[in-house]
Amino acid sequence: MKRIEVIQNVLEANEVIARRNLELLNRHNVFAINIMSAPGAGKTSLILHTLRRLKDKLRIAVIEGDVASTVDAEKVQSEAKAVVQINTRNMPESCSLMAAMIESALKDMPLDDIDLILIENLGNLICPSEFALGEHKRVVIASVPEGDDKPIKYPLIFVDADAVVINKIDLLPYVDFDMEAFRRCIEGLNPKAQIFQLSCKTGEGIEKWCSWISEQAKANAAKR
Amino acid sequence: MPGQMHELGVTENIISVTLAKATEAQASRVVQINLVVGELSGFVPDCIQFYFDTLSKDTIAQGAVLHFELVPAQLRCRNCSTVFQPRDTLWSCPECGGRSVEISKGRELYIESLEVE
User: Which 3-state string (H, E, C) describes A124-157?
Assistant: First the structure.
C-alpha cells in the first residue's frame, strides 16, 4: 500500500471557472451582483424595483436561477435589457447556482451592451455560500417575517456578504423582529457589510439601496 | 425524484482528482481517500459517500473507503483575540462576551491524501 499526498481543495474546479467569469466580466466592463436569500425573502421583488429605478441610468441584465419554473424570468423580462433563465432541475446540482452555470449564461448575453448583471441565486441560505460565481459583490436578503435569528442559524452566508438587505420592514409592527439584535449580529459576523433596511411593498429604503448599487458599479468601472 | 444536492458536483471532483493522482502513481486500486471537512462547510459526508458509491463504479476507485476528518469550528474574537470553539450557534466569546468574531477554522473541504496499491 502506498500513500499519496494530495492536499487539493475540492471546490477548486468551481473557483477556477468563477475567476474566468470575473475576468470576462471585467473585460467587458460589466458589474455583477450575486443575490442570495431564503425562498420568499424578496429576491425577485428587489430585482424588479432595482430595474425600474435604475434602468435609465444603467443597462441591466438578469440571470435567473430557478429550480423549474420561468415565473421569475417572465416578471423581469419587460424591464431588463436581457434575461437568461437557468433552470437547475436537469443540472447536476439544484440547491445553488455554480460558476459553470453562470459561464454558460454569459455566453447568451450581449456583454458589450450591459453595465450590470443581477444574478438571482436559488432560494437557499446554506449552499450558495460555498460557491463563488465570479460576481463582484455578494448580497444576502433577509426578511422581517423570517425572524431576527437568521444570522445565528446561517452565519456563513452573512460572513461573506458585501451587503445585507432586510426586506419587508413594513411588517415590523406586526412581527416580533428585533432590528437592533439583527444588526448587532451582522456587525459582529461581518463588520464590513453594508446593511439596508427596506420594503419592496412601500418602496421605503429602495432609493438608498439603488444608490449603493450605482456607486459600486461606477467605482468598479473606474478601475478598468 | 428528490432534488440533487451540491455534493454531487463535489463528489465528481473528488473522483476526478483521485483518478488523476492514482493513475499518475501507476496504482491499480484506490483503497482509501482521506478527506478533510470543516464543521461549518455545507457538505454532508453521508451525502458524498452516497454519490461516491454510484459514481466510482467501474473505476479503480470503486469500493474505496472514504475517510472524513472533521475539523471543528474555531473562532477568533475581534475584541480580545481569544480563540475558541463555539458551544452553540450564538458565537459569543467566552472571555469577553463579544459577538464580533471571525472564523479561523471549520470551512475546509479538501482531499488530504490517498492510499493506493
Answer: CCCHHHHCCCCCCEEEEEEEHHHCCCHHHHCHHH
